[in-house]
Amino acid sequence: MAPHAPASGWRTNLVLYAALAANLGIAVAKFIAAAITASSSMLTEGVHSLVDSFNQILLLYGQHRARRPADAEHPFGYGRELYFWAFVVAILIFGLGAGVSVYEGWRHMVAPEPLRDPLVNYVVLAVAAAMEGTSWAIAVRAFARSKGECGWWQAVHDSKDPAGFIVLFEDSAALAGLIVAAIGIWASHAWGDSRIDGAASIVIGLILAAVAVLLAREAKGLLIGERADPALIRQVRAMMEAEPRITFVNHVRTIHTAPDRVFVAISADFDDTLAMGDAETLIEQLEARLKAALPQLSSIYIRPEKREDAEATLPA
Questions:
Q1: Which CATH class is domain 9-224?
Q2: Domain extent listing, the chain
Q3: pLDDT one-digit tens code per residue, 284-313
Q4: Which of 104, 101, 127 is nearest to 33 (CA)?
Q5: Are 204 and 181 in contact (CB under 8 A)?
Q6: Spatial separation of the C-alpha atoms in residues 185 and 194, rounded to whole Å
Q7: Is 205 in contact with 99 (CB distance < 8 Å)?
Q8: CA nearest 18: which of 158, 207, 163, 179?
Q9: pLDDT score at 1
Q10: 52, 138, 253, 307: which could form a disulfide with 269 (CB 3.0–4.6 Å)?
Q11: CA dihedral 180, 185, 187, 188 (to 10 degrees)
Q12: Model pTM?
């Protein structure tokens, strides 16, 4: 299977802007409903939407910073700065979203407040579900286009563009939180115990904590540096092996410097009869062919190296 390209910039931005618009509107409505009804789970949901809004702003900022061109201090560009902001988003979801939710739920259980008419909460939850559902559908369609034939979880693990799957995870958690909040509010009034509403807040916090851990794990891998798609690596190796003046391709090593940019280092054993000047010309030709076939290869380094020398330096 040929390597699939990451989602285009405008699609990723559409997902982010749709999520930002939905979360800002929902956050205001949830805070108003929480003030009117004194619902702990509704207040928690308001904080959740506010944190999600801030996260989308951070991701948009990260995309802007990542597009800066390479310079003397950062010769491979600033693409991986997006991965840093993705990791910050995961920390915020855990620290602010999950932390505030669990604290607010615990406080409401220890000192429950009198129950009030839940009608406002139900109206806000219904509107929020419609808006979050729309944002979620946009995120699902965008991610489905970019994942190719991979399964959903494998596609998340292999993705080098965190903006797409972060919004997908956030919107999924938001929809799950709305369901939990609705159940908590209904159960509190059905059984006359406002502590249930506080317990719902804690459950929402645990959902956010789980999402934050998953996002942090994926962002950490991108920050450390991940290889390119195996299909792309195989294509590079095949193109090198197709050159008759190369007797053996020792290794092809890659690392993503941005979601759509890859650095590749190739070690190959050249024909011993090839003169130095001819080898230099051949390397230039190979680099041109690789870049023409695989535009995501932003930097290519081809090193002539004897097969036995390369094998001696490979890790055990």
A1: mainly alpha
A2: 9-224, 230-313
A3: 999 999 999 999 999 999 999 988 666 666
A4: 127
A5: yes
A6: 8
A7: yes
A8: 163
A9: 40
A10: 307
A11: 130
A12: 0.82
CB 52 within 8 A of CB 210: no
Place of tokens 């310079």: 71
* Lookup result for tokens 């919107």: 171
Retrieve residue 104's tokens.
């607010």
Q: Which residue has the tokens 């009117």?
A: 36
> pLDDT for 127-164, tens place per residue?
889 988 888 888 888 888 877 777 888 888 888 888 87
Distances, alpha carbon 77 to alpha carbons 60, 66, 80, 152, 251, in Å = 18, 8, 8, 30, 24
- Amino acid (1-letter code) at residue 309: D
